[in-house]
Structures are given as structure tokens and as C-alpha cells.
């Protein structure tokens, strides 16, 4: 992964696609008296029907896309998650799996294959993605890797009622649109996007009341100004909807992020928003809307607070490396090695990537939220850091 300010030039087709989306964004700006919030811009850039980054056809995730995720890097990740699902499903006696934001469908395929090995297949594996266009790719992946298990997979267009089982989301929270704001001399400014002389520009304006209220709860008064950061205002509504859907079971969310005190640290005065374009990381979200991923780190304290208010019990919080260790990463590694000794180097690299502190091991966290289900989850048996939230 390269960190850069110079991006590779997109193809002419890709540029034309981005132009179309820019014109949609321009129209939204005009309809909204000349400016839209950064959050609205990010929502359109990622999810605008037919044009947004996650919605339009091109391959985004994986080696040939813009960035890698854990399930794209190694099946070991999904096997460990399957092990955690197995523990919950065994306790619930009957229950299904619902995966949110399933990307390429690779995690679904590997989880199903592992649960089959453990004779613990759920009757249903549901997938719900804000980008329904990914369904075809997910279907193709499962068809290729686990064709006999495809009958168990169903795609939903909204959260189900009275769900029992495990809800999974890997790198879903970081793909939610955020508000960006700057505190300067006791004033709070919202980052907005305007259209000027044929291009998109960022502009700061006094924050609206709802954003000011949300920022006031972050206690940032002592920050040296200017202090720029983000906030995800979708969390409360999202967890309320998840809670209304889950009757009994566990939600497991995996993502990169921090506790609030680390996130809103005086030194982190430029926020955490970054963009991915063909494995180049940059900080310019207005470049090529629709062609690059825009993402912000997750504030896990806010996640825990919103989940708690929505009726969940926060039952675990730990690093990805501790979660995988608690879910038998070593066992799955040895099994894979025995099956394919010639892959020793490759498998060792995968374990390093998933669990070294300098790779995904510490940067990624796992949070568990329980509903009507009392259970010491294996993933948090190595170390549980709920006290840090
Ligand atoms: C960064 S990708 C991660 C994909 C996959 N989970 C992985 O790890 O490879 C984020 C995914 O979450 C989806 N997404 C974003 N917000 C969502 C929401 N509120 N509900 C369901 N899916 C969502 C996006 O469409 C996209 O497929």
C-alpha cells in the first residue's frame, strides 16, 4: 500500500463515469442552496444509485481492486469467525447468520465451508448490503467456492424481523458516511462541498445545530485549534434498527478504529479520513468521486454507547489478533499447513498480516454485542478490553 498525493490516472471510461457522478453531486449542491455537507457528499460518492463507489460495477476489494480486507487476504480469518459463530449457534440451538456488507462474498463462502466441516451449518446465511449491485459478485464467489451451499444463502433488501443467531459485519462501520468538522477559536465549522467554476471544492461554514450538539458530547473544548476530525451520526439509528431486528444472539463487528480517547486525541488533529485508489492511500476525498473509497476510522466508544442505548449488552472488545487467537487461529494454520505444506511461506505471511501489531493485528478491533444471550465468547478469552471503551 503506497501513501501518496499523486494518483494513477484513471482510464477514460472511469473518468467519464466519475464526471457523471460529479454532475449528480453538482445538482444536489444547487438544490441545497449552493452547499451540501461532507456527509452527504460521502454518501453520494460511495452509494449514489448506479454511480457510487460501492454501487457501480468495477471490482473494488481484493488484489485487483483498491484495497485488501482480512477475508480477502486469508481464509484463516473467516475460519476463525466461523469458529466463533459455531460457539454461539451451538448455545442458541437454532439460529442463522446474517452478514452485513458482504463485499465480494468470500467471507460468506469460507464461513459456510468451515461450518460444514464442523457439522454446524445454519439453515440460512443471509446477506444484506446497502449496495445490492454486489449480489451478483457474491453469488458468483459462493457458486465457485461452495456451490452446494448456495441454497442456504439468501439476499435481503432490509433487516429481517425477529432474527436469532449471529450478525457479522467486517469493515462495514468504516464505510458509513461521516460528518467532518473543524473546531477553531471556540467555534465549530462543518466541512461542506460546493461547486465552483466546474469543480468540487470543500468549504467551511458554521455547523448546524444537530452537529454542534453531537460535537458538544465529545468534550473537545481543550483541543488546540484548529482541530479537524469526524463523527459518525448514523450510529444511533443504525444500532436501534439492528436491535429491533435481533431477538436473540450476538452481533460481531470488526473494523479499524480506536476508543474515543485515542480517536479524539490532541495529536490527531487532522482526523482519520482517508481514501483508497488502486492501492494508493490519499487524503483527498474530492478526487475522482465514485472511483475511490472514502473511509474513516471507527470510534468504538461511540459504537458501544449507541449499542448500549439501543438495548445490546457490550460483551467483548479486543484486538483482531487476540480475537483470532481466541478462535483457534493456530489450529487453522496448522491444519492448512498439513493440507498444503508447499504453502508454508504464504500461510505464515497470512498469519503475520492478520495478527502482527504493525499489520492488522492491533489496528483492527472486534466488538461483540449480545441480546438475550449470556455466553463467554471464545474470541475475548485471550484478552477483553471493554474497560478501555
Ligand atoms: C469496505 S467494504 C467491506 C466488504 C467486506 N465485508 C470485506 O471485508 O471484504 C464495506 C461494505 O459494507 C457495505 N455497507 C456499508 N454500509 C452498510 C450498511 N449500513 N449496511 C449494510 N452494508 C453496508 C458496502 O456496500 C460494502 O459492501
Write the layout of secondary structure elements.
Elements: E1 2-3, H1 12-31, E2 36-37, H2 38-47, H3 70-73, H4 75-92, E3 96-100, H5 106-117, E4 125-128, H6 135-145, E5 153-156, E6 163-170, E7 179-184, E8 187-196, E9 199-206, H7 209-216, E10 227-231, H8 235-245, E11 246-258, H9 260-263, E12 274-277, E13 280-282, E14 293-295, E15 298-299, H10 300-309, E16 313-319, H11 320-326, H12 329-339, H13 344-355, E17 364-371
Parallel strand pairs: 1-13, 3-4, 3-6, 4-5, 6-11, 11-15
Antiparallel strand pairs: 2-8, 7-8, 7-10, 8-9, 11-17, 12-13, 12-14, 16-17
The chain binds S-adenosylmethionine (SAM).
Features:
389 residues; alpha/beta; Rossmann fold; 5-stranded antiparallel beta sheet; 13 helices; 17 strands; 35% helix; globular; binds S-adenosylmethionine
Descriptive report:
- The protein is α/β, with parallel strands linked by helices and 389 residues long.
- It has a single domain (1-176, 234-372), classed as Rossmann fold (3-Layer(aba) Sandwich).
- The protein has helices spanning 12-31, 38-47, 70-73, 75-92, 106-117, 135-145, 209-216, 235-245, 260-263, 300-309, 320-326, 329-339, 344-355; strands spanning 2-3, 36-37, 96-100, 125-128, 153-156, 163-170, 179-184, 187-196, 199-206, 227-231, 246-258, 274-277, 280-282, 293-295, 298-299, 313-319, 364-371.
- The strands form 3 sheets. Strands 3, 4, 5, 6, 11, 15, 16 and 17 form an 8-stranded mixed sheet that branches. Strands 2, 7, 8, 9 and 10 form a 5-stranded antiparallel sheet that branches. Strands 1-13-12-14 form a 4-stranded mixed sheet.
- Helix 5 packs parallel to helix 6 (135-145), helix 8 (235-245) packs across helix 10 (300-309) and helix 12 packs antiparallel against helix 13.
- The longest helix is centred in the N-terminal third of the chain and has 20 residues, at 12-31.
- The radius of gyration is 21 Å and the shape is globular.
- The relative contact order is 0.15.
- The mean pLDDT is 94.
- S-adenosylmethionine binds next to helix 3.
Amino acid at each position: 500500500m503506497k501513501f501518496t498525493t499523486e494518483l494513477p490516472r484513471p482510464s477514460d471510461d472511469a473518468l467519464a463515469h466519475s464526471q457523471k457522478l460529479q454532475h449528480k453531486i453538482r445538482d444536489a449542491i444547487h438544490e441545497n442552496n449552493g452547499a451540501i455537507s461532507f456527509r452527504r457528499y460521502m454518501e453520494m460518492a460511495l452509494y449514489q444509485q448506479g454511480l457510487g463507489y460501492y454501487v457501480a460495477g468495477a471490482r473494488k476489494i481484493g488484489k485487483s481492486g483498491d484495497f485488501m480486507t482480512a477475508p480477502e487476504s486469508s481464509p484463516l480469518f473467516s475460519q476463525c469467525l466461523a469458529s466463533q459463530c459455531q460457539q454461539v449457534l451451538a448455545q442458541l440451538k437454532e439460529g442463522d447468520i446474517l452478514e452485513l456488507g458482504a463485499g465480494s462474498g468470500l467471507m460468506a463462502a469460507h464461513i459456510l465451508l468451515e461450518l460444514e466441516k464442523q457439522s454446524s451449518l445454519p439453515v440460512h446465511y443471509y446477506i444484506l448490503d446497502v449496495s445490492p449491485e454486489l449480489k451478483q459478485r457474491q453469488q458468483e464467489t459462493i457458486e465457485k467456492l461452495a456451490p452446494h451451499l448456495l441454497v442456504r444463502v439468501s439476499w435481503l433488501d432490509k433487516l429481517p424481523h425477529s432474527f436469532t443467531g449471529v450478525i457479522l459485519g467486517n469493515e462495514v462501520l468504516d464505510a458509513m458516511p461521516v460528518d467532518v468538522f473543524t473546531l477553531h477559536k471556540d467555534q465549530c465549522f462543518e466541512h461542506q462541498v460546493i461547486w465552483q467554476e466546474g469543480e468540487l471544492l470543500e468549504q467551511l461554514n458554521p455547523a448546524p445545530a444537530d452537529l454542534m450538539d453531537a460535537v458538544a458530547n465529545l468534550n473537545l473544548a481543550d483541543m488546540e485549534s484548529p482541530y479537524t476530525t469526524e463523527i459518525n451520526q448514523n450510529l444511533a439509528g443504525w444500532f436501534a434498527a439492528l436491535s429491533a431486528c435481533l431477538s436473540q444472539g450476538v452481533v460481531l463487528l470488526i473494523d479499524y478504529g480506536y476508543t474515543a480517547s485515542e480517536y479524539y486525541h490532541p495529536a490527531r488533529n487532522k482526523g482519520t479520513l482517508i481514501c483508497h485508489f488502486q492501492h494508493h492511500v490519499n487524503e483527498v476525498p474530492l478526487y475522482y468521486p465514485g472511483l475511490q473509497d472514502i473511509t474513516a476510522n471507527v470510534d468504538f466508544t461511540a459504537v458501544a454507547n449507541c449499542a448500549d442505548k439501543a438495548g445490546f449488552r457490550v460483551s467483548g472488545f479486543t484486538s483482531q489478533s487476540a480475537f483470532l487467537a481466541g478462535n483457534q487461529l493456530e489450529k487453522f494454520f496448522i491444519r492448512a499447513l498439513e493440507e498444503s505444506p508447499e504453502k508454508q511461506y504464504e500461510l505464515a505471511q497470512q498469519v503475520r498480516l492478520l495478527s502482527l501489531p504493525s499489520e492488522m493485528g492491533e489496528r483492527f478491533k472486534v466488538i461483540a454485542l449480545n441480546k438475550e444471550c449470556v455466553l463467554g465468547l471464545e474470541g475475548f478469552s485471550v484478552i477483553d478490553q471493554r474497560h478501555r471503551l
